[in-house]
Amino acid sequence: MRRHCPAAHPDDPTSCTGPVAVTVLDATGAGAEGCEHHAARLLASLEGGRVYALPDAPPGAAIRTFKAADGIRPFCWVDGPRTAPSQLSHAENRDQRGH
After folding, report:
1. How far apart are the first and last CA of the chain?
2. How many CB atoms lie within 10 A of CB 56?
3. DSSP letter at 40?
4. Which residues, other chains included, contact 24 with Cβ-Cβ below 8 Å and sequence gap of 6+?
5. Which pLDDT belongs to residue 99?
6. How far is CA 8 from each of CA 56, 60, 83, 88, rounded to the nearest angstrom?
7. Can you spell out the DSSP letters for 58-90?
8. Whole-prediction pTM
9. Residue 73 and residue 43 in contact, taking contact as beta carbons nearer than 8 Å
10. What is the DSSP letter of 56?
11. Alpha-carbon span 73 to 61, nearest angstrom
12. What is d(CA 22, CA 60) in angstroms, rounded to the nearest whole number?
């Protein structure tokens, strides 16, 4: 059985791509620490989420996670058509609005 960081969703089949480096907080302040890969996927699936680097994180970990999340669709491991704004990435929604 694969082990994942705490930020990985139980249904996400991907493996961690590095050490636990950031904390992702949801809109209520609940959070999970994770590798940049799973933290970005988690952040992309939250409305009003935030990301913070852990004290021993590599430089730029939080901004890399934030930028990666922008282009990831929420719950990106789920297959099927995606047409509603809540199913698209932040970048796709900006593009559709012409920003």
Report:
1. 43
2. 9
3. H
4. 7, 31, 32, 33, 34, 39, 42, 43, 46, 49, 50, 51, 65
5. 58
6. 20, 20, 25, 19
7. PTTHHHHHHHHHHTSPTTTTS-S---SGGGS-H
8. 0.85
9. no
10. T
11. 20
12. 10
Write the pLDDT tens digit of every residue in 25-43.
999 999 999 999 999 999 9
* Residue 51 CB burial class (10 angstroms; 0-12, 13-18, ≥19): buried
Question: What phi, psi does 11 have (nearest 5°)?
Answer: -90, -5
Residue with tokens 């949801």: 26
Q: Give the residue among 61, 62, 52, 60 at the shortest CA–CA distance from 25.
A: 52
pLDDT of 51 > 70? The answer is: yes
DSSP designation for 18: S
How far apart CA 18 and CA 30 sit, in angstroms, is: 23
Order across the sheet with 31-34: list the strands: 31-34, 22-25, 50-53
